Amino acid sequence: MDFIQEGPVIALAVQRIDGFNHYRRLIGSDETKSKGRDEREPSLRDRFAVDGVRCALLASQDMKHSCDNVLDSLKDLSNVSSKILTLAIIKPEATMQLHKILKYMRKAELSVIGLKKLSMSQEQTHCIARHDGENHSNSMLLGQSCIALALERTNAVAVLLKLCGDEDPSLARRRDEFALRAMFGLSATANGLHASRSFLSAQEEIRSIFPELHVDHPSKNDEVCGAHRRRVVHKGDQRTLKEMLFLCFCEDVIADDDYIAILEDLVLEDFKVCNLRLTTLSTKQSIELAGALSHRGADESFRRGRCLLLALERDNALSRFQMAQNKKLGGQGRLADLVARHAKEESS
Q1: Does the residue 236 lie in any domain?
Q2: Which contacts qualify for 339-346: CB closer than 8 Å, 24 or more apart?
Q3: 275, burial (CB in 10 Å: exposed 0-12, middle 13-18, buried 19+)
Q4: What does the buried/exposed string (b/e) look like for 123-150 if buried means 16 or more CB atoms within 10 Å of the residue's CB?
Q5: Where are the beta strands (DSSP E) in 231-270?
Q6: What confidence tens digit (pLDDT) does each residue in 173-194 have?
Q7: What does the sequence similarity comment in the record state about its family (predicted)?
């Protein structure tokens, strides 16, 4: 029954006269080639089952089991959250394309709730590689510099797998030229991205790479229906006004990959990436942006080359960003180091 935990399921409590026996006849036996109610009408399992294990529909084994669990089922249904988590790892050959990959993920409505640049440890590499199946490309990630993303949305595992495409970039290009591996993968081993293959593997991989994210676990009574209700717990989960924050990273920051460290800090502060664009600003745009920043010489920095424009969202975004800056500036955070270093470079 492990396959039930690979993704969301639909639980139904239905009622009619002689409902238990009628439903058992309607769905047929556990065998995929069972007969329906008569020779002319196939059962529901005949029509929709994948194989003898994935038989499409499950039913209570007896009347007592059905009655004892109907209230628990209804309770589960009232508490179900449709959003689940999955993990993406951008491999070394594609890390410079983070801004493009994030844009495609945003279009697919995948919310970034965790972002981290890391050198893969032996434990993390083993956790990722053992879910590869026949493809062993992820076993080569040990010690490599990668970017990990914890993503959330409805049916996130299947959505991300479809977005990434076939594990072999050459096959991915034939099937969908806009799949992420088709665009950013180099070979079957250096294919650009790893995506969790199932719900259970996603949970294990996220715990390995993002131990700081707290994940709710279902109780023993919720082993089937409750599995997809695991979610990330955010601090201060209050219904407050959402605000948009605009950031512009100049060429110097992009070239040094410094924007990844800043993004990581902001995502940890519950900011969500709403939109982004890599572009070259016109003289007019540079002057207007510099004027808004009230920073002498800023327009020159923006005109030097490409800029990465980011729109971020969270409740009380402006004050939260200021608090994040103050917190990092007060300690030894990366945001403080980056602000100080770039300010020094500009003054010199």
Answers
A1: no
A2: 342/252, 342/253, 342/258, 345/252, 346/297, 346/301
A3: middle
A4: ebbebbbebeeebebbeebeeeebbbbb
A5: 242-249
A6: 999 999 999 999 999 889 999 9
A7: Belongs to the NDK family.
pTM score, two decimals?
Answer: 0.55
Tally of domains within the chain: 3
Task: Determine the Cα–Cα distance for residues 181 and 239; give it in Å rounded to an integer.
Answer: 38
| pLDDT confidence band for 160 (50 / 70 / 90) | very high
For 2-25, write each residue's pLDDT tens digit: 556 556 677 777 777 777 777 777
Structure tokens at 282: 């016109």
Q: Are 91 and 146 in contact (CB under 8 A)?
A: yes
Q: Are 113 and 267 in contact (CB under 8 A)?
A: yes
Query: Which carries the bigger pLDDT value, residue 133 or residue 235?
Result: 133
- Token digits of residue 308: 């990465």
Cα–Cα distance measured from residue 87 to residue 124, given in angstroms and rounded to the nearest whole number: 13
Domain assignment present for residue 237? The answer is no
Structure tokens at 179: 């799949």
State the virtual CA torsion across 335, 339, 345, 348 in degrees, nearest 10: -150
Average pLDDT over residues 130-141: 64
Residues 125 and 18 in one domain: no
135: domain range?
Answer: 83-229
CA distances from 78 to 12, 15, 185, 199 (A): 11, 18, 42, 21
What strands, in cross-sheet order, belong to the sheet with 272-279? 242-249, 307-315, 272-279
pLDDT for residue 203 is more than 50: yes
